Amino acid sequence: MDSLLVVKEAFAAMEDGDFEKMEKNLDDEYQLVGPAPKPLEKTEFLDFCRGLVAGFPDWKFNITDLRESGDSVTGLLHISGKHTGDLDLSSIGLSIYPATGIRLAPVEEPMIATLRDGKIYRLEVASVEGGGIEGLLRQIGVSVPAHA
After folding, report:
1. What percent of the chain has pLDDT over 90?
2. Is 107 helix (H, G, I), strand (E, B) or coil?
């Protein structure tokens, strides 16, 4: 499977809440860098994703401008969703945030996925104003902890 298809499949699996399928597209040494207070390893990342989808059952990445170059895929994320469930971010050292009914305003976040042996090895999401976990929490009216 080419790099572009692997990335599309992984993001679609998360949107569908299919974490088993998502996990199959991640390298054992997978790491997410950027949107969380610290880099997340594979298990932490999957727990984090479960918490996001529980809080935002209609979570979408709305990826645009996907481009493949060898073992790397770049694109732009425009995350959307409505906070209708408990958002459990305890897996990354934060809290559980009760539903607010607030719909996220998409923020454009550049990302690059690096693949190794046909699986995503590293996902980097650029820090942008209003993006990442800090931006998401602010949008749902949460006072952001100093370390977030």
Report:
1. 86
2. coil
